[in-house]
Amino acid sequence: MATVIGAHNFAALKAVYERPSLRWILQPRMQLTFSGRRMNLQSKSSDEVEGSPWDNKGLLQSQELYRYVLETSVYPREPEPLKEIRAITANLPDFYMGTTPDSGQLIAMLLNLLNAKNTIELGVFTGYSLLLTALTIPDDGKILAIDSNLESYELGLPVIRKAGVEHKINFKHSPALPVLDKLLEDDKNRGSFDFAFVDADKTNYGNYHERLMKLMKIGGLIVYDNTLWYGTLAMPEESVHKLMRSERSYLLEFNKFLAADTRIQISQVSLGDGMTICRRLF
């Protein structure tokens, strides 16, 4: 049975963000020296105000260094519509599901390098990465966006419409596997996509990978989000919150699978919660 797109383990993530940071909880066993500062869930009117919801999202262990990256290289170049969606997302209890702006900056560069026109997105949430893609690809480009959570998508939809890029988006309110399988029934869809971004239920990543590999062009990219799972992959299982363990276990195996998959070239980058970039070789 297909797991629903966007069905992250909300209880687990909520447990992490309602307590001192997960790294702080695990510090005695891991002998790490990370800050125990609590996450501030209140939205801020300015990117420059200390305590932004994005402070602890990245894997960089210095908040000051991460803020430097955001304020120097990311925020000054972030289009205004993306700032609007980020502000909307910051007010939500599950804001941490949104794509981080530094991750978005890399995705935009990858899209430009590919000259991508036909893309697919599994897991949309409020639409930060979707809007970023729509702003980046050419006017005749298309994005197949799939998510079973219509309510979250509709929060960002007014911004997408105001940005004038809704015509590029084909949103499917559905679990992903049936949509992917339907695409594969038509041979013209095979090898027709330039780029895919996957930020969905983690335990289906392997199922998505096999289908996306058939849909991607040779040289096309698949980007998987959350492949470092809040830093827990390098921690002993007994040290990890029990609600985080099932996804942790699956991602450990998925990362090994990607590393051994000779059909792709990979790069795992520590932006946001970790992203793995896969380039189809054949």
From TrEMBL:
It is an enzyme of class 2 (transferase). The keyword Methyltransferase applies. It comes from the Eukaryota. Pathway: Aromatic compound metabolism; phenylpropanoid biosynthesis. Signal peptide: none annotated. Its EC number is 2.1.1.104. It holds the Pfam family Methyltransf_3. GO terms for biological process: lignin biosynthetic process; methylation. GO terms for molecular function: caffeoyl-CoA O-methyltransferase activity; S-adenosylmethionine-dependent methyltransferase activity. Keywords: Lignin biosynthesis, Methyltransferase, S-adenosyl-L-methionine, Transferase. InterPro entries: Cation-dep_OMT (IPR050362), SAM-dependent_MTases_sf (IPR029063), SAM_O-MeTrfase (IPR002935). Belongs to the class I-like SAM-binding methyltransferase superfamily. Cation-dependent O-methyltransferase family. PANTHER family: CAFFEOYL-COA O-METHYLTRANSFERASE, O-METHYLTRANSFERASE-RELATED. This is caffeoyl-CoA O-methyltransferase. It comes from Solanum tuberosum.
